[in-house]
Amino acid sequence: MAAIVAALCARVIAALWRLFEGPAEALRARRVALNLSQEEAARPAGIGVRTLRRIESAGHGTIESLVNVAVAMRCEAKLGDVFPLPPARSMAELMQQQ
Question: Could you count the other beta carbons within 10 Å of the beta carbon of residue 60?
Answer without folding.
Answer: 12
